[in-house]
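[09:14] KT: can someone run the structure on this one? pasting the chain below
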Amino acid sequence: MRSTGLSTLKDKPLSKKQKTRVVREAQVCLRKEPETVLPYLTDFDMHLLREGNQFKLYEKLGAHCIERDGMKGVWFAVWAPNAARVSVIGDFNGWNREATPLLVRQDGSGIWEGFVGHIGHGQSYKYAIRTKQGWELEKADPLGFHSEVPPKSASIVWDLKYEWRDQEWMAKRKERNALNQPMSVYEVHLGSWMRSPDEGNRSLSYAEIADRLIPYVKKMGYTHVEFMPVMAHPFQGSWGYQTIGYFAPASFFGNPQDLMQLIDRMHQSDIGVILDWVPSHFPMDGHGLVEFDGTGLYEHEDDRKGFHPDWKSAIFNYGRVEVLCYLISSAMFWLEQYHADGLRVDGVASMLYLDYSRKEGEWVPNCFGGRENLEAIHFLKRLNESVYGAHPDIIMSAEESTAWTKVSKPTWDGGLGFGLKWNMGWMHDTLVYFSKDGIYRKYHHNQLTFGLLYAFTENFMLSLSHDEVVHGKGSMMRKMPGDDWQKFANLRLLFGYMFGQPGKKLNFMGAEFGQWDEWNYQTSLDWHLLQWAPHQGVQRWMQDLNHMYKNEPALYADDFSHHGFEWIDCGDWEGSVLTFLRKSGNPDDDILVCCNFTPVLREGYAVGVPRPGCWREVLNSDGREYYGSGQGNYGRVWTTGEQANGRPHALRLRLPPLGVVFFKREK
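[09:31] RB: done, C-alpha cells below
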C-alpha cells in the first residue's frame, strides 16, 4: 500500500512524553520573535500539520539561509513521502544527484531535510527525486521564494528581508477595505499594461511599472489595483493562471524585493493592492507539483477528480491535510510577506462542483452521492476563516459564476466566508443588453432590472474583467452598437450605469480610454489612442466617475442592503429609461441616477423625487468635455410642484441620448 505521508498519522494519539514536548515547544514558539524562528520542523509544527493547522509552512519548508555550528549555509526541507531518495542539486555540486543527499525524518512525515554549507542567497537549485519505481525526477521547490526566468526552471535561494515603509497605509487599511467604503478596482496585467517600444517591445520591470502605473492610478481615482497572477508561471500565455510557484513572484519582471517595493509604493500613494491567486488547479510541467514524488501527491491520482478538462491541468487534492496547509500557507505568505490587501480567488466554481465541465461518467460523486466537492468546500471555509482570523483588514474575493448560495457570507452562517463575490450574472446580462441596437433594447429591458432581484443576496463586486475582452469577444468598445459616436456614448453610459448600481466596481485596463482592439498579452495597451478627443473623453469620464464615486457616500456606503437602493421607475421599457436613487441613510446624500439607453434626446421627462427644491447635475456623460453632444439640464433643475412615480415631487429633465446623468439635491 502506498504511503500517504502525514495524513496517516493524524489520528494516532500522542504519548504523554510527546504531549509534554509539544506543549513546551508551543510555549517557546509563542515567546519567540518572528525573526528568530528557525526553519526546523519541531514536534509542535508536526502536531499542527497533522491536524491541518500549520499555515506558515514557508517558515519551515523550502530553502532558508542559516548559520550552523559557525558555518553559513542553507537548510533544505521538502515533502516527498513516497520518494526512495531525495537530494539537492545545483551549480554548487555540478548538478550531481549523488553529491548532496537529504535525510528523511523518522516520524513518518515523508519530509526530507538537511543542511548544505558554503552556499546561500542567489544559489540556483532543484530537488533530485528517485521514486520507488526507479524514475529520476528533477523538481523545483514547491516552497521556493524565487525562480529562474523561464524557460529555465530552477528555484533560487532567496532572502526575503525588506524594509517596508507603508506603516501609515497598514494602520488605516481596515477602514480602506471596509465594505461600507468605496472600492473601484483597476485590473492590470503586468506584462502588457505598458511596454517599452524602443527596446524590442519588452515588458517593463516591477520598478518601471511602479514609476508609470502609480501616478496614472492616482490621477484616475481608482482605490485599488488588482494584479492578474504575479506568482511564478512557466508560460506567459496563461496570463499567470497556470501557477507553478505558489511562494515565488514571476521573475519576468524582477526579484521578490522589486515586487515588494511596487506594492510598498502603491501603499504610500494610498492605493490598495489585490493579488489574483489560483488554488483551483496547477500546470502539468515536469518540474512542478505534478506527480512530485512519482505519485499524485498534491493532486488526485484519479483523473476524474485530479485532471481539469478545460485547462488541461491538475486539480489539488483538498482532502489531504498537507495540501490544505500548503495552499493556506501560500495565501498567508502573500498577505504577510508582500503586504497584499486581499486575494481574488480564481475558479471557485470549478472547485465547488465535482462534475464541473464533465459529462456523465467522467466524475466521481461525493460520499452522499452528490456533485458537491465536500473537501474543496471545507478548504475554502478554512482558508477564509484562517486569513480573516489573522488579517481581518484584508479582502477575500471569489470568482464564482454559479448560483451557489452564501459565497460571501460568514462560515458560521453556513457561508463560504468570502468578503466579496464577483457578480457574473450582472456582467453577462448587462453586456448582452448593451450589445443591442437602441431600437431593440426595449425588448430586453428585463436584463437590466433582473439583477436587482438578487443584488443583496451576496456582497457583490460588479466586474468587467479581462475575461470579457479575449478569445474573440472583442474589446468593450467593439461590443457597443452603432456608429463611432454611439459606440463612445454607449461605453460612457455603460460605465456610468455601472457606478450607479449597488456593488463594488472592477474594470480591466484599456477599457477606461476606449481601446478598440481586443486585449493581447504580448503587446502594450494602445496608449497612442489618447491623442484623439473621443478617447480622451472616455478617459476623463472614468476619471470623473471615480472621483465622484469616492466623494458621494450614497454610491458606496450601503452597497449590500436594499436600504441603499430605491427604484424611481424601472418599468419604462418603451422608452428604455431607468431612474433610481442611491442612498446612504442620510437623505442629504441621496443621488438620483437617470439612464437613457436610446440615442433619442428626451425632453421634459418626468421623474419623481422624495424632496422638493433644486437638484444639481453632478455628472453628465453627454458633456462636451467627454466628447458628448452637450445635452443636459444647465447644471441644475427645480421641482415643478407635480407628482410623479408615486412621489410627492417631480423634476422635468432633459435626458441626453445614450446618456446617464447624476443629480444631488442642494441643501
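[09:33] KT: thanks! The two ends are 78 Å apart (CA to CA).
[09:34] RB: yep, looked fine to me
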